[in-house]
Amino acid sequence: MTDFERTFDNAVEEYDDNRPMYPTQLFADLLAYQPLGTNSCALEIGLGSGKASKPVLDTGCRLVGVEPGEQLAAVAKARFQSYPNFSLHQQTLQEYQGREGSFDLIYAATAFHWIAEEYGYPRVYELLKPGGTFARFAYHAGQDQGRKALAEEIQEVYRACMPGSKTPVPFGQADAERLAGLAVKYGFADSTYKLYYITKDFTADRYIDLLKTYPNHMALEETNRKKLFHGIYQAIVRHGGVITIYYTMDMELARKP
């Protein structure tokens, strides 16, 4: 298992409690592009604790998940134990031995960026049925737009404790267009994308729990990591005890001809 997978698996409670849910409209758009029913089969890559699984399961289709993290897989199995149409392989996509041409939908929720595109797109293409859909979606955290002084103070803490860190650049239309174009590069057709916007409030404690699920934060040398977390925590407390994260969520859709 790679370091990033260990990071997520060692912070399973923080991950499940604090990572955002995906918008209802995202799944409505996905299922409009690729309708699913009881005769359909879907594959979720990097299922995690199952934050993006229920809307697909509720279509009645058979959902196969791959998730390498032992603790995350255990949470997902317990969460969906009442669904006879759910199965989970504690594996990476690279380890999964699925049959070619067997899925109507393959999707990854904030997971596909961990897989090299030279491997990931061709493997997804192989596993899909002709006419099947690949959906890649993810969320991107933005600064607190309503508390500018807090956002700037947090950036000062980053500059002091995480050398080389830069002010986050909002994910936008050009980024989504680029990702949509990758699918075409690997033989997919009918490529399109959509953007969604949500906010999520965190107390200081909850926000630090969220940061514990970020691999680049947990990879910091311990002294710097403690200073970073303490500095961010104190900044949030000084500015009222709540931070609002502005998330941009993108979804790229494409079809196997």
Rg calc: 19 Å
Q: What is the number of helical segments per DSSP (H or I, 4+ residues)? A: 11
Largest sheet: 7 strands, mixed
Q: What is the strand arrangement across the widest sheet? A: 3-2-1-4-5-7-6
- Shape type: globular
Number of separate strands:
7
Average pLDDT taken over every residue? 93
Approximately how much helix is present in the residues? Answer: 40-55%
Order of helices and strands: HHHEHEHEEHEHHEHHHE
Give the uncertain stretches in residue-range form: 1-7
**What structural category arises from helix and sheet content?**
alpha/beta
Terminal-residue CA separation: 34 Å
User: From the structure provided, what is the oligomeric state, counting identical versus distinct chains?
Assistant: single chain
Strand-residue fraction? 25-35%
Architecture overview:
The chain is an alpha/beta fold and 257 residues long. It has helices at residues 3-10, 12-18, 24-33, 54-57, 70-79, 117-127, 148-161, 173-185, 204-211, 215-218, 222-238, and strands spanning 41-45, 62-66, 86-89, 103-109, 128-142, 189-203, 242-255. Strands 3-2-1-4-5-7-6 form a seven-stranded mixed β-sheet, with helices on both faces. Helix 6 (117-127) links the parallel strand 4 and strand 5. Helix 2 packs across helix 9 and helix 9 runs antiparallel to helix 11 (222-238). The longest helix has 17 residues, at 222-238. The radius of gyration is 19 Å and the shape is globular. 34% of the residues are buried. Mean pLDDT is 93; it is low at 1-7.
